[in-house]
Specification:
Layout (H helix, E strand, L loop, with lengths): L7 H8 L5 H9 L2 H15 L15 H26 L5 H9 L6 H14 L2 H12 L5 E4 L15 E5 L4 E5 L7 E2 L10 E10 L2 E11 L12 E5 L12 E5 L2 E4 L9 E2 L5 E2 L9 H31 L18 H36 L6 H28 L12 H13 L4 H20 L9 H8 L9 H28 L4 H7 L1 H26 L4 H21 L1 H7 L4 H18 L3 H6 L5 H4 L10 H9 L11 H15 L1
Parallel strand pairs: 1-5, 2-5
Antiparallel strand pairs: 2-3, 3-9, 4-8, 5-6, 7-8, 10-11
The structure holds ligand LZZOIA2V and flavin-adenine dinucleotide (FAD).
The site of flavin-adenine dinucleotide has 23 residues, from strand 1, helix 11 and helix 12.
Length: about 650
């Protein structure tokens, strides 16, 4: 990239960077070799001619866009397969996917959840049967759980799988419209198999929801099998190429061994054998929630790169009347909008890495029959997924707004990035619903703390707070982290006390919970923020990096801490010993941090190492040819391929002529 002819502002910005950008790239990737491998892989993908679009996707019809996405998905699959064979390298398909599809792959759910569920929920025999076929795309699948009537409350799903011991089959039925599966990615017209989550019935008795692997289309003709009604759900805010679909069954029979039986089992005679923990059926969701925290980091870095580079190139208005127009990046308000995006991407990455380690540890434990840490993992993944996805959505939107009118152009790519980022707030567990899951755990932990029990590490601050809730405020990163824990503990206590108050007033527990649920949700958010702050600060101070880079990483981590303290200063004034003077000191510190980060802003987004093909943005490309690219892209509009459009003769001219009469 170094030889590309760049906009002079970007050249100046890069020259003043105080740290080695390559060092940060390697740190993010996990080593110099990992960067080399990643770049070689991406170079290979983006030099495949067939993966490049002749016409910008935006101008294609819904149908053509889908077909083009499937075409590219199959080519990408082949290229990746060859690449993996040749180099023994497992690529990050999600990252290049943004470049290839601009939106998302119609195989997203195949890779993200279908294969993962076979691994997580299938017995070794079932894995041996389906995994090789799924991994090499002999069969293509999705994860069909959500229905028209129920997405959050999965115990309420209506799709039925009734066991017939005579034929040793399950009979699938969707008797009501609300029971139709609705949303699964790839279901519309891509997949031939699904994981169907359905209510198991044996001899008229319900045994809760279970996962079934179901073939829905003929492998040769792709026609829906008899008894299957399947289709696409239509256009959405984003995710246009994900091919989300609907599905219903009428007396559709599948063999007994198509119930994934790693946890619970149905024997030939219809005996139901309970698993170690019925919630293990929800395992794929936990894995994907963890993965979404990592996605939030990537999505935020895409928006930050576009908006920061654009803000370095764009000049508008003056700070001093007699001086030239300034780069908009010099406005401190602009820095306030953008630097939190850079900082958040690093925080999400660090927290993702921490959370995925916990996930893998719990999976190891479960394999040995130990489930003690599962509730903590579920609670932590729920609140982090909820808060990171919502933060990422807000940050991306702020980056879009920070690009003014041009941020509204599709060619900036910010609208598309926003579309797939905010989808994460809803899918894989709606944010409020997940925060309330964590609140259940926090209330239990609070009760345990009151009883003097030892708490799990992520909530042990509740016991510390009970022992001493009057800790002196300290304007240091460690002091701020403690402060966040105080806020979280204070909010958990307040929510718990509110529940007790309503119970004393005669409410039953469930109504008391609902009445206190705004406080419970806020307590859960505060708990999440305290984890984000503690983990990310801890990761940064343990990082081994050169002094220059470490200084910048600390500035970003502190910016995150101070930003959120100021954003939630009301909570700090209520639940910690912070004073008004401390808040004034933090405001000053925040301004210092913005100024310190300013010279490194472009270097920091360069270090996300997002190729132009992945950014796919007129505003964010490495060379900063913003206005040239905006014009080049505009000229690709079909309306610019003719000097007079037919609508002139058909409508405009008659209108004007009518006006003359
Ligand atoms: C290392 C890993 C790294 C990487 C991952 C790689 C890749 C992933 C990246 C990208 C992903 C790819 C594709 C993404 C694109 C699109 C995907 C979109 C797919 C979907 O949206 S699928 C549908 C998702 N649906 C949901 O999430 C539904 C949300 N609802 C629920 O989960 C549940 O209904 C509920 C939890 C809200 C409530 O369930 P319930 O009614 O049965 O439970 P209760 O409220 O009564 O609680 C009972 C009890 O159980 C505990 N519990 C609940 N869930 C779990 C769980 N998952 N694990 C453990 N324990 C759980 C709960 O805490 C309660 O305990 P308590 O002790 O009684 O309090
Ligand atoms: C882009 C996209 C892709 C998706 N892909 C898939 C897929 O591949 N497979 C699949 O199975 N599903 C998929 N989904 C579905 C997704 O998982 C659900 O939409 C999601 O879990 C939310 O459920 P819901 O739509 O029923 O929302 P609802 O639960 O109806 O939420 C509506 C409102 O009700 C509130 N609410 C609901 N329950 C409670 C409660 N207990 N307490 C307080 N408030 C509550 C919510 O907070 C929210 O404000 C996808 C969704 C999207 C948007």
């Amino acid at each position: 990239m170094a030889n590309v002819k760049c906009n002079p502002d970007l050249v100046r910005e890069r020259a003043k960077c105080s740290f080695d950008v390559n060092e940060l790239i390697h740190l993010i990737d996990g080593g110099e070799n990992a960067t080399k491998e990643k770049r070689h892989f991406e170079e290979t993908i983006f030099s495949v001619k067939e993966l490049q679009d002749a016409v910008p996707e935006e101008y294609l019809s819904h149908k053509d866009r889908y077909e083009n996405a499937v075409r590219k998905a199959t080519i990408l699959r082949d290229v990746c397969r060859e690449y993996m064979k040749k180099y023994n390298y497992k690529p990050n398909r999600f990252r290049v996917g943004h470049g290839v599809f601009k939106d998302v792959s119609p195989f997203l759910l195949h890779d993200g959840m279908f294969v993962a569920t076979i691994i997580g929920q299938g017995t070794p025999e079932q894995q041996a049967e389906w995994l090789p076929k799924a991994e090499n795309m002999q069969i293509i699948g999705t994860y069909a759980q959500t229905e028209l009537g129920h997405g959050s409350f999965i115990r309420g799903l209506e799709t039925r799988a009734t066991y017939d011991p005579k034929t040793e089959e399950f009979i699938l039925n969707n008797a009501t419209l609300s029971s139709f599966k609705w949303w699964p990615g790839g279901l519309g017209s891509t997949v031939n198999h699904c994981i169907v989550v359905a209510q198991l019935f044996i001899n008229g008795k319900s045994y809760g929801i279970q996962p079934f692997i179901v073939q829905i289309r003929d492998l040769n003709t792709h026609k829906p099998l008899p008894g299957v009604k399947v289709g696409e759900i239509g256009p959405k805010m984003g995710f246009q190429t994900a091919n989300n679909g609907f599905l219903g069954f009428e007396n559709f029979r599948i063999p007994r061994m198509n119930m994934l039986m790693k946890n619970a089992q149905v024997l030939k005679d219809g005996t139901f054998v309970k698993g170690m923990n019925e919630k293990l059926t929800y395992g794929t969701m936990v894995m994907v929630r963890v993965g979404i925290v990592g996605d939030c980091s990537l999505n935020t870095s895409l928006a930050a790169t576009i908006a920061v580079r654009y803000s370095a190139v764009r000049h508008q208005s003056k700070i001093k009347a007699k001086e030239p127009e300034v780069q908009i990046l010099d406005y401190v308000t602009q820095q306030h909008k953008l630097f939190i995006a850079i900082a958040s991407s690093h925080v999400f990455r660090n927290v993702y890495s921490w959370l995925s380690k916990s996930y893998l540890n719990v999976m190891k434990d479960l394999a040995q029959g130990k489930q003690d840490h599962l509730p903590e993992l579920h609670a932590t993944a729920c609140c982090l997924k909820a808060v990171c996805s919502r933060d990422a959505g807000s940050v991306v939107e702020e980056c879009r707004l920070a690009c003014g009118g041009h941020g509204y152009m599709t060619s900036s790519n910010l609208p598309l990035v926003y579309g797939f980022t905010i989808a994460t707030v809803t899918y894989e567990g709606e944010q409020t619903v997940l925060l309330l899951q964590t609140a259940r755990y926090l209330v239990k932990a609070w009760l345990a703390a009151l009883q003097g029990k030892v708490l799990a590490p992520s909530v042990s601050y509740l016991s510390d707070w009970l022992k001493n809730d009057n800790v002196r405020w300290q304007n240091t990163p460690e002091g701020i982290v403690k402060g966040f824990q105080h806020v979280a503990a204070g909010k958990v206590k307040a929510a718990y006390d509110t529940i007790q108050k309503y119970i004393k007033l005669g409410k039953d527990y469930e109504d008391a919970w609902n009445l206190a649920s705004v406080q419970l949700m806020k307590a859960s958010e505060a708990h999440s923020r305290s984890i984000l702050c503690e983990v990310s600060w801890g990761e940064v101070i343990r990082t081994s990096a050169s002094p220059n880079l470490l200084q910048v990483l600390k500035q970003l981590a502190q910016l995150y801490l101070v930003y959120w303290t100021l954003e939630t200063s009301g909570d700090f004034l209520v639940y910690s010993n912070i004073s008004k003077d401390d808040i004034a000191i933090l405001r000053e510190k925040y301004e210092e941090l913005l100024a310190a980060i300013r010279p490194n802003a472009v270097g920091l987004v360069d270090a996300f190492d997002l190729r132009d093909e992945i950014l796919h943005s007129t505003l964010g490309s490495y060379d900063g040819r913003v206005y040239e690219r905006l014009m080049e892209e505009a000229l690709k509009s079909p309306l610019n391929q003719e000097s007079v459009n037919a609508s002139f003769h058909k409508y405009l001219k008659p209108l004007m002529e009518k006006a003359k009469l």
